[in-house]
UniProtKB/TrEMBL annotation:
It comes from Sinocyclocheilus grahami (Dianchi golden-line fish). This is UDP-N-acetylglucosamine 2-epimerase domain-containing protein. InterPro entries: UDP_GlcNAc_Epimerase_2_dom (IPR003331), WecB-like (IPR029767). SUPFAM superfamilies: UDP-Glycosyltransferase/glycogen phosphorylase (SSF53756). Signal peptide: none annotated. Residues 40-198 form the UDP-N-acetylglucosamine 2-epimerase domain.
Amino acid sequence: MERSEKRLKERLRVCVATCNRADYSKLAPIMFGIKSHPEIFDLEVVVLGSHLIDDYGNTFRMIEQDEFDIGSKLHTIVRGEDEAAMVESVGLALVKLPDVLQRLAPDILLVHGDRFDALALATAAALMNIRILHLEGGEVSGTIDDSIRHAISKLAHYHAVCTRSAERHLISMCEDHSHILLAGCPSYDRLLSAHQRDDYTDIIKSWLGMYYRGMG
């Protein structure tokens, strides 16, 4: 019994937080990888943001269909089309996240991209001394997203980037090179793992849907 408990404690508790359908497409391959090694990792899934909004299709159901257990659902979106609503949403997330992170006590939190929800996640985790792995930092788009993305990168402890230029940008921001992994874009994994040309065709066909018929 003691040996079994010790083995459980040795597993790395990884919390993956997803805010919308777009970031889930990037996080899902990583989540499947973590889930496939239960002897090493203890996966906790936190869902917030537009995943839980009716108008956006309640996309948290995609996560459940992929057979991931959602440990926490946080309603953090304040309705509105202006910048003030976005700021209020960040504030609401910051009010709700501490209880969840304290309960889960993850060894590391995975955060993706440049959404304001992700900024709230990174801020809460950093202030609670939780290690953060930021996916797809170092990108440049020329919008407010850059400021949010770079802020998350500075709060993060580890980075998984898509390109060499993103890696160089993080290094120029004084991030530790040894903590940066050039991993590529995780949402391409399914396509790149197909070994037969027919497999590529089927995947592309399913992605493009009705538009595929017009490409023949």
